[in-house]
Amino acid sequence: MTNQTYFRSRARITGVVYLLYFLLAIVAQFLVGRGFAAYGLAVNLLANVSYIALTLLLYVLFKPVNKSLSFLAALLSLMGCGITLLDLFHVAPSRVSPLAFFGPYCLLIGYLIIRSTFLPRILGVLMILAGLGWLFFLSLPLNSPLIRYMEALGIVAEGLLMLWLLALGVNEQRWKEQAIHSGMQT
User: Fold this and answer.
1) Can you give the pTM of this predicted structure?
2) What was the pLDDT predicted at 6?
């Protein structure tokens, strides 16, 4: 496998893991909504494991842009995943929402996309809007009609990023240039 083929597949694998997360999260919600709580729990666990893997893949992808911010984003996402996992077993601190971590995570990923030279900036803008939406979501009452819009914004932003990675990957030459400029080995 050539270096270029390896790189292309690495970017697309990130998209595949993103897709896997989306599919598992949808199936989990379907199962829970149909009264299959135990199956829903199992699928939710798999969804969280896939999001942890996605977090690590995105960390590597965005390290050339800003290693510290990419690490902070990954740390926030892993904390959100941890809260989500604790919440699945009803042992999470009741006042801590995973969105308090996923909102800033989306903001940072959006910023990293905008600062990158290898992904379209519009994806970054959408991720920033999603991050702001998740943070705004935290202040809404549970019965607010705005909740659906905030959820849709997050799903659209992350869904478009997932589709872009899956279908097109990243601009390899620009990623390598940014990696070399930041002192990373490719």
Assistant:
1) 0.90
2) 54
